[in-house]
Specification:
It is a single chain. With 287 residues, the chain is an alpha/beta fold. The chain has 2 domains: 4-32 and 65-156, Rossmann fold, CATH 3.40.50; 159-286, Hypothetical Protein Tm841, Chain: A,domain 3. It contains 11 helices and 13 strands. The chain has helices at 16-21, 45-56, 69-81, 99-107, 127-138, 143-156, 169-173, 179-188, 211-225, 242-255, 268-274; strands at 4-9, 24-27, 30-32, 38-40, 63-65, 86-91, 114-118, 159-165, 191-196, 202-208, 231-238, 257-265, 279-286. Strands 10-9-8-13-11-12 form a 6-stranded mixed beta sheet, sandwiched between helices. Strands 2-1-6-7 form a 4-stranded parallel beta sheet, with helices on both faces. A 3-stranded antiparallel beta sheet has the order 4-3-5, with helices on one face. Strand 3 and strand 4 (38-40) form a beta hairpin. Helix 3 packs across helix 4. The longest helix is centred in the last third of the chain and has 15 residues, at 211-225. The mean pLDDT is 93.
Amino acid sequence: MPRMKIVLDSTCDIPREWIEKLDVAIAPLHIVWPKGDQEDDTRDLQQIQDFYRRVASAKELPKSSQPSVGEFVSLYQQIEQEGYDEILAICISTKLSGTYDSALSAAEQVKIPVFVLDSKLASAAMPLPARRARELEKEGLNAEKIMQVLEQDVKNGRYKAIFYVSNFDFLVKGGRVSRMQGFFGSLLNIHVGLWIDPEGKLVPFEKARGTKRAQEMLINKALNLVPKGSKLRLLMVDADARESTKVLLQMLKQNYEVLDVSFTEMGKVITTHVGPGTAGFGMEVVE
């Protein structure tokens, strides 16, 4: 069997313990502050928590930038030097970032075979196909065949991403939603439910006052997308709102057969666009 390395970009919000377990390399996106200071989007917990504090009090939000083609080329070459035979790169939705294009362009410039997947996902939904890839590998599939299965999974809606934001201004400033929606969001001081649709777009679907209503809103959205009683694997995610994700998990368990669950923190790039106080989950619907 060829040795396969999985590459995820840093918007994946992968639990730290999964990085080694799934043999994953992370291609970091970058944070650029208004005065020009830059930092990488890392999975270091202390850095992430420090970023929550800084971005919450920032008068002007930083911007994010994708990894360059050259950065992907260097990463692929390093993986080849480590003795791997092939690479499966799983990237954030092309509707949200140009990271996929960088990863794909770089793949054409290296000797090692690289298969690049547009996950049409972001945040806590992205590590789920990475885990699935390792399970398929154990069944004897190589990277090319795994890629084909994952593409079909994505097409069939096997993975979902649903969450709410507590400060809609972050989405407006980041240019992810219209200004009119942002005006109503800030005016009423409400939580806004978001999901990533089948095309990979970030779509607001409802508003709710207060955390409890916001949690109910997410569960109702999940039930609209996935029938009650389905078997799920979950990855709960938050930006400094862990208590809310714990409540969401209990609510999900009341409606679904939860096979396994992990918790993770939103990284710097995702938090830049949705803000601290965000909570939600990635779902894998198991057949």
